[in-house]
Amino acid sequence: MKLNKIFAAALAILTMTACDDDDPVNTADVTVNMQQTQMSIAEDFSTGVYYYVPVVLSGETNGPVTVTIAVEGTGANPAVEDRDYMVTSKTIVIPAGETQGSFEFHPSSNDDINDDRQFIFTIVSATGAKIGNNTSTLVTLLDEDHLLPEALSKLVGTWQSTSASGTYNCTISAFPEDDKNHLKQVKLSGIGGLSFANDVILDFSLDASTGLVNLSLSMPQILGEKIAYNPPVGEVDVVLLPFDGGLYLQGVASATSNEEVTQFVFDCGWAAGLFTPGNHTAGGFTGYTGGRAQDFTLTKVQ
After folding, report:
1. Which residue, among 183, 266, 280, has the nearest Cα to 224 in the 3D structure?
2. Residue among 119, 84, 106, 121 nearest 2 (CA)
3. What's the pLDDT tens digit per position in 147-187?
4. Within 10 Å of residue 23's Cβ, how many Cβ atoms?
5. Which residue from 291, 289, 245 is spatially nearest to 268, judged by alpha carbons?
6. Could you tell me if 243 and 222 are in contact, meaning their C-beta atoms sit under 8 angstroms apart?
7. Cβ–Cβ < 8 Å for 70, 92
């Protein structure tokens, strides 16, 4: 998706530069400036999430304005383009009548504990506008990796699982330090008060710019195999599925913590679907569930 997006942007620029010299350009008296002098973001890249550095025009335009920037690392620990961040395009066109445009970029995540990195966007040319005094935006990539152990420590412990179906205590635990999933995932045990349930795996990440923790529960996950239920169900596999009033075979429930990292309100609930052993497709669904949790919330107990 990233490559397609960048290719599309590059094609747009190529098309623009191939246009006739008689194309309209703003002739009104306007000035272009960076809107912000600095911004800070987490270095981790989430798929589909891009950041924007805005530029603003003062005055009313009667034609399009083209703005070009240069981007380079700066400071004691400069960020490196195409390693630490990627800019979609360094030239944008602000249409007539509009007063703002933006340059799009995303950081590149890594698992290294390192100092924060910086890079700077600078307006170097503008067609159809004068360049003002605020020509630069300093971007700081905040390294969340050195903060992950502290975030993990806040997650580990006893939590109260609350939904319309009831309230249960459950436990979040960490993977060992030598495990590849350490600082990336956590284990949730006791979900829904189901005594037979396997641990549920949650992905976790930290937004270093806000200090908030993100949890994602990808489903399906197998809670138990060949579990005996009373007739007419009988022996079944129990599979964790997304549930929001309707039941789905796959999906992700996501939540962002409060500032104290003591509560998560998920955007989707879950259900324990009962399936014919070994057949977890729609055809293997028995039509029964072993528990449902709509409006799923986790609240820290200790």
Report:
1. 280
2. 106
3. 778 888 899 999 998 877 788 899 999 999 888 888 889 99
4. 9
5. 245
6. no
7. no
